[in-house]
Amino acid sequence: MSDKWLPAAYQLPDGGRISAMTASGDDWQIYKLEDGRNLLAVLPELAKKWSSISILEDALWKSISFGESHFQTIVSPQKYTLVAISQDIAFRTKNDAIAFAVSMRESRSRYHDGTLHDAIYLEQYSRLLPTYSISPSASDTLVLGACLTDGVHVSTNSFRRLCSLVGWLSPSDLTEIIEAAGLPAPGSDGADYDQRLPHSTNAQESTNDDKSGNGASGVTKNIHGLSETRHFSLPGRPHLEEFFNEHVVDIVSSPQRYQALGIHFPSAIVLHGPPGCGKTYAVDRLVEFLDWPSFSIDSNSVGSPYIHETSKKISQLFDKAIDSAPSVLIIDEMESFLTDRSAGSSSGSHHVEEVAEFLRRIPEATANRVLVLAMTNLIEMIDPAILRRGRFDHTIEVSMPSREEVTALLGALVSRIPCEPGLELEPAIERLVGKALSDSAFVIREAARIAAKRGKDALDQASLDAALLCQPADGAKSGRPIGFVWK
Question: Where would I find the H helices in 297-402?
């Protein structure tokens, strides 16, 4: 946590006294008062941002000072929740969840475009207050799903999975909560959930998902929830697509066939390669395809300056993943935790402890149906014991995209939006070969934005060419200066 702005026993104008700080960010802090109330203190600049989008009225704030610092504050009665949703939120009743959902809907009616994954929940005024952090964003469906499941990375769109994780709420209760948040309600797949078994004790369960009304039998699903006929697609990465289909998808789609020969679950996988090569893109698509709860171990989620605390958080995430199995555990930037213990700069006892925790938990996770996916830009720095077979059986190099891969990705991207006849992709392909796959996605997204701004109802050549101009040439500085000139 950050250094406290207000010391213990600091007295507020209404007589309340600070007891302890419970959560903090760069420009906000939450305190518990001695009388049980909660205090939100923010820097004036953040309060002005919220006022500018009309999400919280200026009249609600009280100004206080400590030393030369000035803060805007709101005191929340003990009966109302005041927490950072990314750090500490748990619903005890259906009404608690409904109140949060209403706050999400009311906040979204004022704050249309940004993410709420880093918000502060101020129940007293039915608001989720965005904190504009630089952490990876999440959709509202993921935010609500994570809050309902105490941190599991699952969307409310994955209704069957959500129901299995939130046993204290019925499917109809969950539907009511989702609708209260202003999010899409589940379709027929969720409506009859209580007549189905998401985790059958048999190897197969049949569900009739045929919507055509022709009486055809439904798709047969296995106990992991994947159809035997489904194929994972990764546009622009045919070799990685083939690897995931063979070593992950086929195993979880046809468990009986593999279990008969002693293969019970996919082994842990490492993806390594230069920044921008598409590791994260590939992992995100696989997680989306599997539709399992996912958990992430990175410096933001488990890093701590306190000895033993990082190892404790790592262990807790492994426990959550195992409890939610089948699930996915992603180790991002694994060089942050798993560098070679023999290296002089990484020989501290706390680092050895962290590596040992991974060594112990990775095989355990795999044995308990947790798919472990790790990513790194610096494979040569990783402790050899981690990369040994039995922990990570597969170490896959992901290179920068080739011409064929860029062509496949651009083709897949433009196929999803209206395009004018004769759209020529060759100039874009030439420009994007060897660049990050995210650059290809950006160009098509930017071209669509330009086309819409110009009043077009389909992507045209001029808009695509204009978008390519936004893509810096090799070695050029990206971005545009605002208020100053590049030197």
Answer: 299-302, 309-323, 349-367, 384-387
